[in-house]
Each structure stands twice: as C-alpha cells, then as structure tokens.
Specification:
The chain is of the alpha/beta class and about 375 residues long. It has 14 helices and 15 strands. The protein binds pyridoxal-5'-phosphate.
Length: about 375
C-alpha cells in the first residue's frame, strides 16, 4: 500500500491537544502546532479498517486479552529490534507515563531519590516530583552537537537514597539513539548502586538514517536483570489516543512485584480497541513504517538545509530517531521569555521550549516535524518574517 503523507488533515475541533489546546497553552489559537509528540499523518489504513470492522459488531462488552496480542508484540520485538522477549515478561499497561508512575510507586518510597538525565521528556520530572520523590538531575554533556551521558557526574551524585533512574531510549527531545556500550556502562553503574532502571522506549521503532536502536534490556545480562522496559506502537503508528502500551520485565522478582500490583488493580487489562490497534500495527503495518521513515528523513533534511541557508543562527541537532527536532537557538541571544515570544508572537509557531526539559534545555526549542511537507515549508517560511 502507498501512503500519502502529504495529505493535510484538519485536526481542529477533534479535541486534539495539538490544535485545540493552543489558545489555553499559547494564548493564540492560530499558531502552526508543532509541539505535542504525535503526528499529523493518518493512522495506517489496516488499523482504521480493523477498528471499523469491530465497531460494526455494535456490542462492546467485557473482552479478554487474546494470546495473539502478546504474540504480535513478541514477534515485532524479535524481527524489528532483535529483542528476544518471552511472552510472560510482557504486560499491557495503560500508557507509558502511567506505567512509569506505577513503577515509581511500586519500587520506591516517598522521599527516595530518582535520577533523570536532562534535558529529557518533561513528564519525567512531573512523575518524580508529583509522587513526592526527590528528583536528581544528571545533565547530559553536549559533545560535537550530540548528547553523551556524564558517567563521572552520575557516580558523584548517587547516594543510598537513589532508587530509580529513568532512561529515555531513544532520547526525547534530541532523538539520540544510545549506543550499546553507553547502555552497558549505565547498567553496570546502576546495578552496582542498586538503582532500578526504567527504560522508556516509546520512540524505539522510529530509528532514522541507518541508526540502530538497542533495547536496554538486551544490551547485557546486568541490564536485563535490573530493568523495566516500556514500549508502545503509539508513536510509530499514530495511535497515542488509543493507548496500547506494554511493559517488559525479564527479572522474575521484579516482574512478580510489578505485575502483582498491576493485576491487583486491573491495570493490566487492555480495552477492546487497544488490542485491535496494537495487533494490526505489529502484524500488518511494517510497510507504513518504512514509508514513514523515508518521509521523516526527508523532512529533517529539509529543515537542516533550510536553516543552514536561510537561518544559520538556529542550529539543528540531527535526530537519529523519531520526529522531534532539537533546535539550538542560543545564537539568537534571547532570554527565555524573549525566545518563546520570538516563536509564538513573531513566527506564529507553537513549539516546546527547551527549559521545560530541565537543565541544559535553556536556549533550545523542540519542533515536531511529523507534518505534511507543505506545512513544514510554511512553518520555516514563517521564520523569515521575524526579522
Ligand atoms: C519519551 C516519552 N515517553 C512517554 C510519552 C507518552 O507516552 P504515553 O502517551 O503512553 O503515556 C511520550 C510522548 O511524547 C514520550 O515522548
């Protein structure tokens, strides 16, 4: 099947966060929305068709989770990520943010410390602080316009109150695909200090430009035995609103503790639609992913060459995965409020400002380029009218 990612689909008045929360969040409903991390492309047709078919049945009562749901996940992880996972390691979870929150509650106490490596997905901070844990930042190092983990600082900040490290793999906001050796080293340090690693791998399948994703639990036995992994087809196939995420916990003790909690509270039970969407995505939508990846790479190259030619003061960190582009705007010489104003008031663009991702995000902006090319062109052209 051929997918048309150039098609412009109006999302206004569907309660889409990206369009319909603009006025509330940015004070202007007429901005080009390039913030929330979902895509403005149609969900693959096989998923839409499978959901339609089920809707036609007209009864949506209690539904069991078929073994085919787990089989689709096991198969996808093996084929796409070379990740060998046993069926019993997997559970449905009601969203990745919720899953991380649940794991925080099961594996740490109020007042414990949790490490995040900033700049990083802003809800990590929210999850730690709103659950009354103490957030400890281990800022990433910027080396040759790419992020690296700062292991010597990590060793310095760790104390016996640190119980969990939340990893973004691949990394949001920069799109960095962590190298195997980096993850192995992280695993060693965390194991040595009895720190559980929660690996958020929601962007795993969207690797770009020939980069290879490494699931944290697959890099070593140490990593495998001291981690909880969260993945989902939600970003890859644009089905975040359907919620079909899952966890992978290879270690039996950790698994028993976490899954007993999920089962006790029926948090392991998917909805009818999550099952259908996930199974169809993983079984029948590989061709969509191939075409999507090409389109995203072209969009990223387009942004890169546009900025180099027309707006060299803004520098792009080329993502190795996903559809988020991390823009270094420090050469504009603007403070935080001025930078936000520049994008919202002058360029009429709704981006995520870098400060929300924690230390190291100052002076950066995150732009979601999963939009039809025409919209991307319009967004970049808006920058030209800011002078
Ligand atoms: C790194 C990361 N984790 C989690 C999420 C959200 O996941 P969910 O909608 O399953 O809670 C996002 C969405 O942008 C994300 O980028």
């Amino acid at each position: 099947m051929n997918y048309n990612f150039d098609e412009i689909i109006d999302r206004h008045n569907t309660n889409a966060l990206k369009t319909d929360a603009l006025l509330e969040r940015y004070g202007d409903k007429n901005l080009l929305p390039m913030w929330v991390a979902d895509m403005d492309f149609a969900t693959p047709k096989p998923i839409v068709d499978a959901l339609k078919l089920r809707l036609e049945h007209r009864i949506f009562g209690y539904t069991q989770t078929p073994e085919s749901f787990f089989a689709a996940i096991v198969n996808w992880l093996k084929i796409r990520q070379n990740f060998d996972v046993k069926r019993e390691w997997i559970s449905y979870i009601p969203g990745i943010v919720k899953g991380i929150g649940l794991a925080i509650n099961v594996f740490s106490e109020v007042g414990d410390k949790i490490i995040i490596q900033t700049p990083v997905y802003h809800l990590f901070k929210h999850l730690v602080e709103k659950n009354e844990r103490i957030m400890v930042e281990n800022p990433l190092k910027l080396v040759d316009n790419q992020y690296e983990m700062d292991f010597s600082n990590l060793e310095k900040i760790i104390d016996e109150k640190c119980k969990i490290l939340i990893l973004s793999n691949p990394q949001n906001p920069s799109g960095k695909v962590w190298e195997k050796q980096t993850l192995q080293k992280l695993a060693e340090i965390c194991q040595k200090h009895k720190i559980l690693v929660i690996s958020d791998e929601i962007h795993a399948d969207l690797t770009l430009f020939g980069n290879r994703f490494h699931p944290f639990a697959a890099v070593s036995d140490v990593a495998k035995n001291n981690s909880i992994t969260f993945q989902s087809p939600s970003k890859t196939f644009n089905i975040a609103g359907i919620v079909s995420s899952f966890s992978v916990v290879p270690n039996e003790k950790l698994r028993e503790k976490f899954y007993n909690f999920l089962i006790a509270n029926e948090l392991n039970e998917p909805t009818i639609f999550s099952i259908i969407a996930a199974e169809t995505a993983y079984n029948f939508c590989g061709d969509y992913l191939t075409q999507l990846t090409d389109y995203l790479e072209d969009n990223i190259n387009f942004v890169e060459s546009f900025l180099q030619k027309e707006f060299p003061k803004i520098k792009m960190m080329k993502p190795q995965a996903s559809f988020l582009v991390w823009l270094d705007c420090r050469e504009l010489g603007l403070n935080h409020a001025e930078l936000v104003d520049f994008f919202v008031k002058k360029a009429k663009l709704a981006l995520n400002d870098g400060e929300m991702f924690g230390s190291g995000g100052e002076g950066f902006m995150r732009m979601n380029i999963a939009v039809p090319r025409k919209i991307l062109e319009q967004a970049l052209n808006n920058l030209l009218f800011t002078n």
